[in-house]
Design a protein that fits this description.
The protein has 13 helices and 11 strands. It is of the alpha/beta class. The strands form 2 sheets. The protein has a 6-stranded parallel sheet, with helices on both faces. Strands 8-7-9-10-11 form a 5-stranded parallel sheet, sandwiched between helices. Helix 1 packs across helix 12 and helix 8 packs across helix 11.
């Protein structure tokens, strides 16, 4: 099997490890051949289509949100054996997002394709509506994030963005925790500076409210040796990931619940250490990008279902308003 993996050039640094591992697995196993192609969304389409037609790929994998395809839509919808790898499908369900309610209607306007998403409820939703979908959770890159075994001088901390509209609920909660519990809200550059800061934090407080999935920073915090206190996704996803409240992670559904659990941890360093170590063992043994490779390859190579749901009139109305003809 011959596979072409298309990655936006701006996104490649974030996904380099996953896709390089997929390419290496193809070389080592001899079962498939995978090639990477970086593209710039402004000028790639003509060259891309010519390359795909000439090379006759068995799968074309596009790493990116289906919602960001506009002028390329009319060309891409004619590509056979198309697979989307979408780590932002949660936007379908967030009223704060410009893509709210538009990703599934847009998906129906494509021909038969497969959608790999990191959002478990989204995968269930896609399957219930007749789409060929697979759920594969996010993970972390151990070449970038690791425990340096250094002294931690920040008891409660968060590192990340707050300004984007989809982070509104995150911002509200974290700012209240800053005022009520002394949480430090921090920003760093990616890479070494980010890992160094994670290694200063004792308890990493995360708040992916409304996203219904665990963002990468959850796995990164645990791998770096932080105790993770995070807004809980579904019980089913917690079970799939092995997240057990107050055993290897601290899960909460409200501000008061989180403050109550932080109070339980205060003055009990042995409990903090036990949860931290269990969480770190879990992610380093099960949740790096290397652990995701077999599922990603299986999802890509599995035959794409031909009974794709037909577009509805409302789908055209929604997507035309969005700028797709």
């Amino acid at each position: 099997m011959k596979i072409l993996i298309l990655i936006p050039d701006k996104k490649f640094p974030l996904q380099r490890t996953l896709w390089n591992l997929v390419v290496d697995e193809g070389k080592n196993s001899g079962l498939f051949k995978a090639e990477l192609m970086l593209f710039n969304v402004k000028d790639y389409i003509d060259k891309l289509l010519k390359n795909i037609i000439e090379e006759e790929y068995d799968r074309v994998v596009l790493d990116g949100s289906i919602g960001r395809i506009r002028k390329e839509f009319s060309e891409l919808k004619h590509i056979d054996n198309l697979v989307f790898y979408n780590t932002d499908f949660y936007h379908q369900y967030m009223p704060e997002s410009r893509y709210y309610g538009k990703l599934i209607p847009l998906s129906r306007r494509f021909g038969p394709h497969k959608m790999i998403v990191t959002n478990l409820p989204g995968s269930f939703d896609l399957k219930s509506q007749g789409f060929d979908s697979a759920y594969i959770p996010k993970a972390y890159d151990p070449t970038m994030i690791f425990d340096k075994s250094e002294k931690r001088d920040i008891y409660l901390g968060f590192i990340g963005a707050l300004r984007h509209p989809v982070y509104r609920q995150r911002r509200v909660l974290l700012e209240r925790l800053r005022d009520r519990a002394g949480l430090q809200i921090l920003r760093t550059e990616k890479g070494k500076e980010y890992n160094d800061m994670l290694n200063r934090i004792k308890i990493f407080v995360n708040a992916d409210i409304g996203m219904n999935e665990y963002m990468v920073k959850n796995f990164e915090a645990m791998a770096a040796g932080c105790l993770l206190a995070t807004y809980s996704a579904s019980n089913e996803e917690n079970e799939l990931l092995g997240f057990v409240d107050m055993e290897n992670v601290v899960l909460y559904k409200s501000e008061d619940e989180l403050l109550s659990k932080l109070e339980q941890l205060e003055g009990r360093p042995e409990l903090v250490e036990r949860i931290t170590e269990a969480g770190q063992l879990l992610v380093t043994s099960q949740h790096s990008w290397r652990h995701r490779v077999p599922d990603v390859i299986q999802a890509i190579c599995r035959p794409i279902k031909s009974n794709h749901p037909s577009p509805r009139l409302l789908d055209y109305i929604k997507t035309i308003r969005y700028g797709i003809l």
